[in-house]
Structures are given as structure tokens and as C-alpha cells.
Amino acid sequence: MFARAIPPEVFARRRRALMEQMGPNSVALLAAAPEAPRNRDVYYPYRQDSDFYYLTGFPEPDAIAALIPGAEPEFLLFCRDRDPQMEIWHGRRAGPEGAKERYGADHAHPIGQIDNILLPLLENRERIFYPIGYRPDFDAKVMGWLNQTRAKSRTGVQAPTIFIALEHLLHPMRRCKDVEEIAVMRESANIACAAHYRAMQICQPGMMEYEIEAEFFHTFLRNGAGWSYPAIVAGGDNSCILHYTENNAELRDGDILLIDAGAELDGYASDITRTFPINGRFSGEQRVIYELVLAAQQAAIDKVRPGCHFNEPHDAAVRVLTEGLIELGLLQGDVDAVIKAERYKQFYMHRTGHWLGMDVHDVGSYKIGEDWQVFEPGMVTTVEPGLYFPASGQMIDECWAQLGIHLKTDLEERWQRIGVRIEDDVLVTDGEPEVLTAAAPKTIDDIEAVMRR
Ligand code: GLY
Ligand code: MN
Ligand code: MN
Question: Which residue range is the domain that position 255 belongs to?
């Protein structure tokens, strides 16, 4: 699945860092992602579990890792055995030998032997760290091991009594990217930028949304990457559907095209949105909206700095957007009052960013108690304000009404069918915010220049 740009010693370093935090007399257990059936005997392309991959680099299903801190910390890997018949049909397997040689396992065994080998290791151990509650099958397995250990209590064996969600230690580690991760994320971002550039170059009225989507696949695959989430290729009114993925409409002259598409390289996501006119020239209203979203995005990016907290980019974007909407006559009232009443949500109903890493909506908490997480160097967040002006119609009005948002129904037609989002991936550094996705054209001049034929 992954090409392994990150060397084995980095995975070893992460395991050590985790085990140092776990303390003595504990064990961490993690399972590989299961294979996912698609239809009959066809499976979805395999994607390893992010936590498991972060600590092991091991790309196969049917595997369980155990990490045991101590004077001599141990990494045990239980995995599929070598099997010539299965390997002829379905592909190579590392097997326990490969797990030791190539993935740094101190001990490796066939997965079928896990009960025999792991159970004695759980005896008299106080604490188990594992991803509690994410996988019913793995929960059941761990509880099964626990009960088998408890069953030996009359022989003097003590079973673990403290269960700790592994994410408590692991996800703060994943939220701050190490230099190797940043290098891969830069590359993932570059590949996605190249795809957005190509989309701008080839887009013409009359094409279908899926023809543009195909260009993303083309660029991702020929660079050894895949997609990090299903691409959103949304022309005209579809640009106002935040997670539109049908991608099957014709692109019309005069309409806007919103593309939210990112690559996944070696398990690391990029997440970019660009919005541009299908015919290569922004109309008056499209231009006004676009400039406003861009100004909001710039104000938000400026807040991605150490010392600022996670919500500051959102607050900055909301203020710029609200001021602009009032200036355009699309909202009425005093800026602070409109923000307090959240009336901007009619046109901007999502938040301005999320952590980015192995998962596109990456792990890591956003608040510590009552307080927003403060940015630290190595964190990566998206910055993605937008404004959405769907064609008015009963269906959409009812949708928003259900959400308690009452549309300004007398929106002039010239504003309608315009959805603009601009999304970049931003690394927190000691100094200026680093936009990893800066190579995707973003200013109106740059976009129109790329699209000029
Ligand atoms: N592509 C999903 C998001 O922007 O959050
Ligand atoms: Mn995003
Ligand atoms: Mn996105």
C-alpha cells in the first residue's frame, strides 16, 4: 500500500517515545486495519490503520503489535505467515522473518499463535493501552485475553486492572509532525497542487465533472500517490454542496467550478480546494465573492502561529467574511451583532480548518479543557473559508430551515449558484506560517493566467 518513504529507524524512535510515556508494567496493543469487502469477492484497496502504521510501518492486514516498555523495551509483531499459494494469488507477505528483518520487530510470530504467546505476557501486568472502542472485534479480543488472565487468579496470577485509551498518549504525538512526516506532507501537497494546476489548464465548458476528476487520478497515480478522500468536483450550483461527490454533471459556460481534492502519499494526506471559472474568466459577482473569501483566508493563515490558538484563524475569517457580506448588502446590521447571532452561517456554515496528517481530518484534540489548543511548530492545519450562495428553491430553503438557519430568500439572482472555498495546508513554524500548498494557483490573476489559452 505505502511506498515507505519513512525509514525504519523513525518508526523505532516513535515506539520508544510512546513506551517512555507508558511507564513500567504496561503493554500497548494495536491491530492492523481489516480488509473491507466491496462486493462479492472484491475488496476495497487496502488502507492500513493510521495509528498502527505510525508505530510499525507494517503494511499488511491480519497483524497485531504489542509494545512492552522496560529496561529492554520490546516490539512484538504477530502477522500472517508466509504462504506460497496465497502469495502467488494475492501478493507477497513479510511473514515473521520479514517482520523482524524489515520492520524492526524484536520478536515476530504467526498471528495464529497470538493467544499462546501474548497471554503469558499479560499476566501480572497492570496496565493495557489500546484503541478502546473503535473496533468491536478488537475490543472483544482484548476482553477475551483479559478474562482468560482473570481465570488464572487462583493460581496467584493478577490480571491487568487499568485500561487506558492509547490515543491519550499517541494522538498528541501524531498531531506534532516530525521532520520526516513534514517532508512526505510537502510532497503529498506538491502532487495535489500539480493536479489542481492541471485541472485549471484543461477545464472547458461542456466537459463533465468526472473528466476533471480523472485528471486528479492521473496526476496522483503517476506520482505514486492515491487520493486522501473522494474528490469533490462541483460545477455551478453543485459548488454549494459542501461534500458533493457525484461528479457527474456538465460544466457550463459562465459557471464556477469548486474542486476539493487531495492526495495521499505514503499514508499522508493533502487537502486542497480551489475554485475557478469554468470558462477561464471570473464574472463580476464571482470575482467579488472570490476576493472576499481570499481576504478571509489570508487573515486566517496569518493566525497560524505559535501562541495563537486553534480558533483564531476561524474568528479572523468569520470577521472578514461578515464585514464583506455587510458591505455587499447581503447581510444587514452591526458586524459584532451579526457575528454574535451567527447570521453569517447562512453563507458560511462550516469551520475554517482541521488538523491534517495521516488522516485528512487528523487526530489530536482541539481543546484542552475549556481552552483551545495553542499552535506549536510541527502542527499542520487546513485553512479553508468559503461562501455559498445556492440557487434559491424550496428544497434548499427547507434544508436550511431544519438547521435553524433562515435564508435571505430575496437574494438577487446574480449572486446565486456561486460557491467559493479556498483551502490550503499550513504548517506551524517558529516564524511565518508555511503554506505547503502554495504551488496551486490562488489569486485571480494567477488562475486566469493559467486558464488563458
Ligand atoms: N476535504 C474535506 C475537508 O476539506 O475537510
Ligand atoms: Mn479540509
Ligand atoms: Mn478539503
Answer: 176-452
Place of cell 515473521: 96
Cell numbers 465573492 correspond to 289
DSSP3 helix / strand / coil % (the chain, rounded to 5): 40, 20, 40
Q: Are residues 235 and 153 in the same domain?
A: no
The answer to whether 258 and 273 are in contact (CB under 8 A) is yes
Same domain flag for 162 and 196: no
Q: Quick one: pLDDT band at residue 398, thresholds 50, 70, 90?
A: low
Computed from CA positions of residues 176, 179, 181, 184, in that sequence, does the dihedral angle turn out positive or negative?
positive
Residue 408 has pLDDT above 60, yes or no: no
Q: Are residues 247 and 384 in the same domain?
A: yes
If one residue of 188, 271, 314 were mutated to test the ligand 1 pocket, choosing by the most ligand atoms within 8 A of its CB, it would be: 271
CB atoms within 10 A of CB 408: 15
Judge whether 419 and 387 are in contact, CB under 8 Å: yes
Q: Tell whether 446 is covered by a domain.
A: yes
Ligand 1 centroid to Cα of residue 271, in Å, is 6
Same domain? For 184 and 159 the reply is: no
- In tens, the pLDDT along 103-152 reads 999 999 999 999 999 999 999 999 999 999 999 999 999 999 999 999 99
Are 369 and 358 in the same domain? yes
Instruction: Give yes or no: residues 225 and 307 share one domain.
Output: yes
